[in-house]
Amino acid sequence: MINELITEMVEAGVHFGHQTRKWHPNMKKYLLADKNGIHIINLEETEKCLDKACEFLADLSRRGKKILFVGCKRQAQEAVKEAAEATEQYYVNHRWLGGMLTNMATIKKSIARLDWLENLDKQPEFKSMSKKEIAALDRERAKLSRNLQGIRNMGGSPDAMVAIGADHEDIAIREAHRLNIPVVVLTDSNANPDAVDYPIPGNDDAVRSIRLILSRLVAAINGAKQA
User: Fold this and answer.
1) Residue 21: per-residue pLDDT
2) What is the CATH number of domain 30-101+157-226?
3) How far apart are CA 59 and CA 3, in angstroms?
4) Could you tell me which residues come within 8 angstroms of residue 61 by beta carbon, excluding any fewer than 6 positions away?
5) Do residues 94 and 72 lie in contact, with contact meaning Cβ atoms separated by under 8 Å?
6) Strands in 36-192 per DSSP E
């Protein structure tokens, strides 16, 4: 019998994978069939994997641990930010800067620079700056804010990462693994599920699919806080 969650996943298009010629062989265990050259993901497997990921994140939440949400592809940007804010956690949704985890000292310097730029009008040198200099610094502030706003108060490495797209966020995932940070990843049919700790097989290109999976993770994290 098809349950409510699987019905929701079908409606959100979670089951649609990539073209069969782009598949990763390690995803075979999570695939049901192919239709018109598109792989169909087995949503019963998705549900099992989602349950495991929810249990893992709920346990972290109960212990007050830090979770970093990462999703820089256009379809994921807003949903990732909303998920992080809903759980009072952290996010990167514009661009992953190399070394965001493995070179935290440089990132902290950039955050300090952002703090300085945001208080530029209070700096003693502000009055002597030209309009051109101020405009250039404002562009720098906007760029730093886009890249760092979601992690500026994280204060060190997270205890886990949630990423949208194993292929798109491969640099972030590799950095997390170098630091032994476990990762939960919405993993489409073109990516290697064995390269992440908690793969969730599903469509990582559709906004509705991304939002549905994230909503379940958010519910698990917030539910554990209240338990």
Assistant:
1) 87
2) 3.40.50.10490
3) 25
4) 67, 87, 220, 221, 222, 224, 225
5) yes
6) 38-41, 67-70, 90-92, 160-164, 183-187
Distance CA 75, CA 79 (A): 8
Please compute Rg for the chain using Cα positions. Answer: 20
Residues 77 and 94: beta-carbon distance below 8 Å: yes
What pLDDT, on a 0 to 100 scale, did the predictor assign at position 2? 62
Annotated domain spans of the chain: 30-101+157-226, 104-151
Q: What is the pLDDT of residues 73-91, one digit of tens each?
A: 999 999 999 999 999 999 9
What is the per-residue pLDDT across 5-32, written as a single tens digit (0 to 9) for each? Answer: 999 999 999 999 999 888 999 999 999 9
28-65 burial code (b ≥16 CB/10 A, e <16)? eebbeeeeeebbebbbebbbebbeebbebbbebbeeee
Cα gap 141→149, rounded to integer Å: 11
Average pLDDT score over the chain: 94
